[in-house]
Design goal:
- The structure is a single chain.
- This protein has one domain.
- The protein is 41% helix and 0% strand.
- The chain is built from six helices and no strands.
- The radius of gyration is 13 Å and the shape is globular.
Length: 118
């Protein structure tokens, strides 16, 4: 239910909302206590990563949205932590287009699709 609560349209999801998609949000750094509540800064991060325009967000992007910045290709030296393969995998599973990712889909990302659909 987390993605629906975040206002992500069904057409951006691989499957209908599921616990597995909630797990993907956790992979993006959204704390458990923020998943069923109205959008927080961390949930805004996930929406930005999914390509939701700023004007459609309840709150604007935050400086703490490291994951969203990584997704958008901000150089590593401007981030608190560098991008990781696992973060890219989670974004692919959430339906972020290849061109918005730092690396193209890999076999590991395909495995993440399978994991989220199981």
């Amino acid at each position: 239910m987390a993605l629906v609560c975040l206002g992500v349209p069904d057409e951006n999801l691989i499957t209908p909302p599921s616990e597995n998609q909630t797990m993907a949000l956790v992979c993006l750094g959204v704390p458990d206590e923020n998943l069923i509540t109205p959008p927080s800064e961390n949930q805004t991060m996930a929406l930005v990563c999914l390509g939701v325009p700023d004007e459609n967000l309840i709150t604007p992007p935050s400086e703490n949205q490291t994951m969203a910045l990584v997704c958008l290709g901000v150089p590593d030296e401007n981030l608190i932590t560098p991008p990781s393969e696992n973060q890219t995998m989670a974004l692919v599973c959430l339906g972020v287009p290849d061109e918005n990712l730092i690396t193209p889909p890999s076999e590991n990302q395909t495995m993440a699709f399978i994991w989220l659909s199981s």
